[in-house]
Amino acid sequence: MSRKGNNTAGILAGLLAGAAAGVILGMLYAPEEGKETRKKIKDKANDLKDQAKNKYGEVSEKVKDQYGNISSTFKETANSVAHTVKDGYDKYKDQIVSKTADLAKDVEAELNDLKK
């Protein structure tokens, strides 16, 4: 899960960096005044920053949703395992108590026979 998230973040960062570099190079080689070019670069950088924030928000929400799903699944599984273990413990505890009581009676009977 985290490997997939890292790949997605890396791809997103690479796409944004490539887009920004392409826009900046295109503007620098365009035949316009420096002041106008700098304004376009600034505006485009702000647009890219907003896009990055939006994508980060989307990815963050997806990660939170997945975490919630995994967390609830884990809790359900842990509760199921705990109940299974408790039921098994109760079942075998009763059997052990019964066998121990029978064994104690047998030992007591043997001791009484030895005393006679």
Q: Can you lay out the helices and strands and say which pair or pack?
A:
Layout lengths: L1 H28 L4 H82 L1
Helix pairs in contact: 1-2
Question: Any key phrases for this structure?
Answer:
mainly alpha; 116 residues
Any overview of this molecule?
By secondary structure, this protein is mostly helical. It has a domain at 34-114. It is built from two helices and no strands. The chain has helices at residues 2-29, 34-115. Helix 1 (2-29) runs antiparallel to helix 2. The radius of gyration is 35 Å and the shape is rod-shaped. The protein starts with a helix and ends with a helix. It comes from Chryseobacterium sediminis.
Summarize the structure.
The protein is mostly helical. It has two helices and no strands.
Run of helices and strands: HH
Beta fraction of the residues? under 5%
For the largest beta-sheet, the strand count, sense and barrel status come to:
none
What helical percentage do the residues reach? Answer: over 70%
Name the poorly predicted regions.
Answer: none
Number of β-strand runs: 0
